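[step 3/7] inverse_fold.run input=structure_tokens len=542
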């Protein structure tokens, strides 16, 4: 006789069959059956201290593996707390499955008369690729399979699925059939589109490549580097695509996206053809890059994109990156010369980085000196995750990773609070020599409670906090717009006491050299390290 199966067990079986191996969870009453089914499965449960942190962990897991993890919350406030992390995954194109419990189906659609009930299907629709409420047992297999395909297919993103508690606990007549892991392949590029792109590339005299996160997401960083070496095209990257070229590569002009006119921006403005490779408009307004459409753009990607966003796409090749870049590289008529404005951008970037090295002993340290300290100690097997704030802009401009994917800078939603929980997700994968979060003192407090999660899991990780005592980026912005600087500061924290409360080791640094020396010790016995350092922003980023 076949053992009866509940709706929750069927749901979890479908998740496991579809390749989900981790669920970051904060359970509640309405998810009791789901938690029991997960505990009986081979899926690993990571118990979190806040739902937003759980969603950020799932988002970073997806960034690093290319496969979706799930985050789980109960109905009502549990579900609403997931929203920021789910939106982050959607806007940064990260595959993720958000699962929420829900009240019994008999309680739905009663409005305010039903305790904690809100329409979760509608709540997540604006921030996810798809949001569904499972209403019948017969839908479980099909809707979970569709959710997994949608999360990884086309442009990846988050999908939300809600399972009512009565359906989760109900006994099913038949188990859903195995759905298997979804497989999505990019199409082969159209030969005519490829030929048009070659003609446009060969006609340009000042071409410049704008590389986006889609290159790394597709695992095409090797093909991209070969294409650049073959064609000699200068490259600027988005914040999320740092590391596609090593810092000593002669064609590497740095990252675009700062709210100032930087060296790289002047080179972009002087170009006569922008080659956007894996660049999504969510990473940076494309109208700014193309001067409102004055500079023609050759777009290379795996999926169709919007053209009505202020850029002038004159050629477009949609298909597998490796096939497209190989075809373009082979057909290019000559290796491009590094034209004057591109050379100037490269020289300006290197000059600024070298200048920062001479400021390691300044007190308080400048942001550029702190990044220089990070550059000095960044190993090939390290991973850095940035929080959001003024420090993010400094890292985006000045941090020079040697490998693709070595730095995570969330920039689509750009929500504060990702770095600490994201570092937890990265550390538990066991892939990296060292995992390091760099946060502002505003950003780190958004999910400070999950320091306990890292301790409970006994993870090896470090968190560096730059202390400026307030919401500095907003102070700078408001002062620039109104001429008056607001007081958005907050009281100081006893960081040593905070670290000790969670069982972490604490080090206080006074200079960038102190930070460099602290990070240079790679065999310290402490597995979890909170490092604090004051920062003086030099004013070049706002």
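[step 3/7] decode complete -> sequence:
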């Amino acid at each position: 006789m076949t053992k009866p199966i509940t709706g929750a067990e069927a749901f979890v079986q479908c998740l496991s069959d579809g390749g989900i191996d981790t669920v970051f969870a904060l359970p509640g009453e309405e998810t009791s059956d789901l938690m029991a089914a997960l505990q009986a499965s081979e899926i690993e449960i990571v118990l979190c201290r806040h739902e937003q942190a759980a969603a950020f962990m799932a988002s970073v897991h997806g960034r690093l593996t290319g496969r979706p993890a799930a985050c789980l919350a109960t109905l009502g406030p549990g579900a609403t707390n997931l929203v920021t992390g789910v939106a982050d995954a959607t806007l940064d194109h990260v595959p993720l499955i958000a699962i929420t419990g829900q009240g019994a189906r008999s309680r739905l659609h009663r409005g305010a008369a039903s305790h904690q009930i809100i329409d979760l299907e509608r709540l997540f629709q604006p921030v996810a690729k798809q949001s569904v409420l499972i209403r019948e047992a017969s839908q479980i297999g099909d809707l979970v399979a569709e959710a997994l395909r949608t999360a990884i297919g086309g442009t990846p993103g988050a999908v939300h699925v809600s399972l009512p508690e009565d359906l989760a606990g109900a006994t099913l007549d038949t188990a859903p059939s195995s759905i298997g892991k979804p497989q999505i392949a990019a199409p082969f590029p159209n030969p005519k589109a490829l030929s048009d792109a070659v003609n446009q590339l060969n006609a340009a005299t000042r071409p410049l490549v704008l590389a986006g996160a889609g290159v790394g997401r597709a695992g095409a960083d090797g093909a991209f580097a070969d294409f650049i070496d073959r064609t000699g095209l200068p490259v600027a990257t988005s914040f999320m695509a740092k590391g596609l070229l090593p810092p000593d590569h002669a064609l590497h002009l740095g990252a675009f996206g700062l709210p100032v006119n930087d060296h790289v921006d002047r080179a972009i403005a002087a170009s006569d053809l922008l080659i956007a490779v894996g660049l999504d408009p969510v990473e940076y307004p494309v109208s700014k890059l193309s001067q409102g459409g004055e500079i023609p753009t050759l777009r290379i990607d795996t999926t169709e994109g919007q053209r009505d966003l202020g850029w002038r796409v004159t050629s477009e090749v949609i298909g597998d990156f490796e096939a497209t870049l190989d075809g373009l590289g082979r057909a290019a008529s000559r290796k491009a010369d590094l034209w004057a404005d591109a050379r100037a951008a490269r020289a300006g970037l290197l000059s600024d980085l070298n200048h920062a090295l001479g400021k390691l002993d300044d007190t308080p340290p400048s942001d550029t000196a702190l990044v220089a300290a990070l550059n000095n100690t960044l190993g090939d097997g390290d991973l850095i995750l940035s929080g959001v704030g003024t420090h993010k802009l400094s890292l985006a401009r000045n941090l020079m990773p040697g490998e693709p994917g070595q730095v995570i800078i969330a920039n689509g939603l750009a929500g504060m609070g990702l770095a600490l929980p994201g570092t937890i997700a990265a550390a538990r994968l066991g892939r990296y020599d060292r995992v390091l979060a760099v946060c502002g003192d505003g950003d780190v407090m958004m999910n400070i409670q999950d320091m306990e999660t890292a301790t409970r899991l006994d993870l090896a990780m470090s968190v560096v906090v730059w202390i400026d005592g307030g919401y500095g980026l907003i102070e700078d912005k408001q002062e620039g717009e109104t001429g008056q600087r607001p007081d958005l500061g907050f009281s100081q924290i006893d960081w040593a006491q905070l670290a000790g409360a969670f069982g972490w080791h604490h080090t206080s640094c006074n200079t960038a050299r102190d930070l460099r020396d602290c990070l240079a010790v790679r065999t310290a016995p402490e597995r979890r390290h909170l490092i604090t350092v004051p920062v003086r922003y030099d004013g070049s980023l706002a």
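[step 4/7] annotate
The chain has 21 helices and 20 strands.
The first strand starts at residue 5 and ends at 6.
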